[in-house]
Design a protein that fits this description.
By secondary structure, the chain is mostly beta strands. It folds into nine domains: 15-96, Immunoglobulin-like (Sandwich), CATH 2.60.40; 104-186, Sandwich (Immunoglobulin-like), CATH 2.60.40; 194-270, Immunoglobulin-like (Sandwich); 278-357, Sandwich (Immunoglobulin-like); 365-439, Immunoglobulins (Immunoglobulin-like); 447-519, Sandwich (Immunoglobulin-like); 536-617, Immunoglobulin-like (Sandwich), CATH 2.60.40.10; 625-709, Immunoglobulins (Immunoglobulin-like); and more. It is 1% helix and 48% strand. It has one helix and 64 strands.
């Protein structure tokens, strides 16, 4: 018998189906050991797959069947081949493909929304939606799908005129999914913008921005206007007529395009209130006030006037409930249209037409017979005027009402400019005032006397405009000046000459303007001339080197005196003073200089006397004073010799010392200028000497003051190798009362004298003096030494 050996095939793989779609699904299997081939047979065979058998590499683990029919059951057999001779058992399974995808379409397409609908898939568990670009109204991120149970969705928050791609597929209860259904749709444009051109009381005008490809604009108005609410049209203009006053209207517009429509846009506006009702007031020749009740919420008003004003103004913006029209033409009929406008001009009321006429023009006012306090006024008659009112500024009392055509006014102020207005009064109007400015004549001139002197009077009076002149007269007329008076002058000052001192004169003056035909009242005034000037003198006993006293007699009516002084030798001194005294001290003068002094008195009432003049010469410079010799004595006092210069042979000199000390205890008066010896002064102390001279004519010099400091100790002359004793003038302190002496060392070198002096201890000096003795015949070559013990004793040629 024969024996055969064989190996059975391994267990078939585990097979599963996933990703079942309308036209495909995926088969997955587990690994089969040592398998070399995987064979899959599909019945019915998929399109383009031949007999429906697919042989796959053993390394594959899944295979997707494609190009399948929708809602079709496919019989799938899978087996593994091992070395082409061993085959595993076949695994068989049946799989139903998903139905066809839903049909998707868009409806209600607007600018920012659209309705997406699709057909229902039986046994669908839910639907999956994807929109690109993703609108913000869909939750989740752009990578996430949106699941929903219904077969429709309203997409909102879309962008206008934007193309959107919408993808929908169904997920069945079995877990399979249909293929995606895709539809693309562009949103409608933005809705038209509504622009309110005009909102009036009974009408409104609106326009819309045009939308391309619009078939019709759907327009509704709420509440209805004249019973109509649908104002749909193809044009972009809308005129609403017969609107009601002060009503809020809402206009809604949608642009209807082919297959879509824009979002709706609405505009709400309020019609204007009823028009104003105006009336005239304060009618004048060129102006009138128009009043009306204020319109609620009106921001401003406009008035259009026909014909325009004289300056060409025809349209006037107004911010109150009245207007004061001016610059109108007299006696003219006007039409004025008034409208009220809201803030931002959202509405304008209907026109209100106001008719009025202006008053006639007032005739000119003329004046005549103008004086300082009166004038005559006259004017012409004006048609339609029943009465005339005259007003004065400044006021002269109540206004004057006249039916005549002239008026005499006699209670006015002199030299005052009056503004005179005349106004015509009619039945319902007053004319514009005709105004005239007119000066009254000045008051009578007022004479002042700015300077009243002994033989002349300075006159001045108030000035007037250039076309005035003055006539001045005097009584009695000064002798020799008869041709001067009466005086006709255009000046406002004049000096009357040739008058007598302390005499009364009477003056008259008046002003005349031939151009103005005015003559002022006559002014009369009296004035007395001043007395003669005061006698003046400069007494010699008050004259000094740099000062002098001027004296004069008192004048009873004087309030002060003016003193003038000047040098006749130079221009450096020219001064003046005002004083109430009858004397004055002139200072800062120069010695032996001649001066001229003049005095006049200022009297009560602007009077001034003549000037009195005198001259004088100042005293010479004061004598000089010098201490010519001072010596310290053994008793530690100082003796001095002093001298002074002389001025003339007959001068008297006055000398004082401060403080009084020693032999000088009182003033020294002398006519001599010989040396004056003073003893008993203290060491090292300053003394002040004062000296002046009295001249034979009574004048005195100024006091010359000299300070002298006494030596503080005994002294010696000190020098080194001088040839002349006059060159040895330096002084050195030397305690002569304490064992010291003043030494002189006198020698000859090469025939030249060499002199040395100073302070030396007394013993040493005596030793040298004794050691240097020589006979008279050898004096030219020997050395001489002198010692002395008094203050400055080593002077001249002395040796002891």
């Amino acid at each position: 018998m024969s024996v055969a050996t064989f190996e059975t095939a391994p267990s078939p793989p585990e097979v599963s189906v996933s990703a079942v779609r309308t036209d495909e699904f995926t088969i997955s299997w587990s690994e089969v050991a040592n398998a070399s081939l995987i064979e899959i047979a599909v019945v019915p065979a998929p399109e383009l797959s031949g007999d429906g058998v697919f042989k796959l590499n053993s390394a594959d683990r899944q295979f997707t069947l494609e190009r399948l029919d929708a809602e079709t059951v496919y019989h799938v057999t899978l087996k593994a081949l091992i070395q082409s001779v061993i085959v595993t058992d076949s695994i068989q399974l049946n799989q139903l493909t998903a139905p066809l995808p839903p049909v998707v379409y868009a409806t209600e397409i607007r600018s920012s929304s659209m309705e997406i609908q699709w057909t229902t898939i039986p046994e669908a568990a839910h639907y999956v939606l994807d929109v690109y670009p993703r609108p913000e109204s869909l939750p989740g991120s752009a990578e996430e799908y949106f699941e929903l149970l219904e077969n429709s969705i309203l997409l909102t928050e879309l962008r206008a005129e934007t193309r959107y791609e919408i993808t929908v597929w169904a997920v069945l209860i079995s877990g399979s999914t249909t293929n995606e259904a895709v539809v693309s749709q562009t949103t409608a444009p933005l809705p038209p913008k509504i622009i309110l051109k005009e909102a009036r009381t009974t009408r409104a005008a609106l326009i819309f921005t045009p939308i391309r490809s619009t078939i019709e604009y759907k327009i509704t108005v709420d509440p209805p206007v004249a019973g109509i609410s649908d104002f749909s049209r193809t044009s972009t203009k809308l005129d609403l007529l017969q609107t009601r006053p002060d009503v809020e209207y809402t206009v809604t517009i949608i642009a209807q395009l082919e297959g879509k429509a824009t979002d709706s846009r609405a505009l709400t506006f309020t019609s204007a209130p009823p028009p104003v009702v105006a009336s005239g007031k304060d009618k004048r020749s060129t102006s009138i006030r128009i009043n009306w009740d204020p319109v609620p919420e009106a921001h401003r008003y406009y008035a259009e006037i026909t014909p325009p004003t004289n300056s060409g103004i025809s349209r006037i913006p107004i911010y109150t409930n009245f207007v004061q029209l001016s610059d109108l033409k007299e006696d003219t009929f006007y039409n004025m249209t008034i409208t009220a406008v809201s803030a931002r001009s959202t509405w304008t009321t209907d026109d209100h037409i106001c008719e009025f006429s202006t008053a006639p023009k007032m005739s000119k006012l003329t004046t005549s017979d103008v004086t300082s306090h009166a004038m005559m006024l006259s004017w012409f008659e004006v048609y339609k005027i029943e009465m005339y009112r005259l007003e004065f500024s400044p006021s002269i009392g109540a206004s004057k009402y006249e039916t005549a055509f002239d008026l005499f006014v006699d209670n006015m102020e002199p030299d005052t400019e009056y503004e005179i207005a005349i106004i015509g009064i009619g039945d319902d109007f007053e004319t514009d005032p005709y105004r005239l400015k007119r000066f009254t004549a000045p008051p009578a001139p007022v004479i002042n006397f700015p300077s009243i002197k002994s033989r002349r009077l300075d006159l001045e009076w108030n000035s007037l405009p250039d076309d005035y002149y003055w006539i001045v007269n005097i009584y009695p007329v000064p002798a020799g000046h008869e041709d001067t008076w009466p005086l006709k002058t255009e000046e406002t000052t004049f000096t009357a000459l040739g008058l007598e001192p302390e005499s009364e004169y009477s003056f008259t003056i008046r002003a005349v303007s031939e151009q103005r035909a005015l003559v002022t009242d006559l002014t009369t005034i009296g004035q007395k001339t001043a007395p003669l000037g005061p006698p003046i003198k400069v007494p010699n006993h008050t004259v000094r080197t740099t000062s002098a006293v001027v004296e004069w007699e008192e004048i009873p009516t004087a309030i002060s005196y003016k003193v003038f002084a000047k040098s006749l030798h130079s221009d450096s001194y020219d001064v003046h003073y005002t004083t109430s005294a009858i004397s004055h001290v002139l200072q800062d003068l120069q010695a032996l200089a001649e001066y001229e002094v003049s005095v006049l008195a200022l009297l009560v009432g602007n009077g001034v006397t003549d000037v009195t003049i005198t001259t004088f010469m100042t005293a010479p410079e004061p004598p000089s004073f010098e201490v010519v010799r001072a010596r310290v004595k053994k008793d530690s006092t100082v003796h001095v010799n002093s001298t002074w210069s002389s001025i003339t042979d007959d001068d008297e000199y006055f000398i004082n010392m401060s403080p009084p000390t020693g032999s000088f205890r009182s003033q020294l008066v002398t006519k001599s200028n010989e040396q004056f010896h003073i003893t008993g002064l203290a060491l090292g102390r300053p003394y002040r000497f004062g000296i002046f001279a009295k001249l034979p004519d009574g004048k005195r010099t100024d006091v010359r003051s000299v300070v002298y400091q006494t030596p503080s100790s005994p002294r010696c002359y000190e020098c080194s190798s001088v040839s002349d004793p006059k060159d040895c003038i330096a002084e050195v302190a030397c305690p002569l009362n304490s064992g010291y002496s003043c030494m002189t060392f006198d020698r000859r070198e090469n025939g030249r004298r060499m002199l040395t002096r100073g302070c030396k201890k007394r013993d040493a000096c005596e030793t040298q003096r004794k050691s240097h003795k020589c006979s008279s015949k050898h004096r030219h070559s020997c050395v001489l030494v002198g010692c002395c013990n008094d203050d400055l004793c080593n002077e001249g040629n002395r040796l002891n």
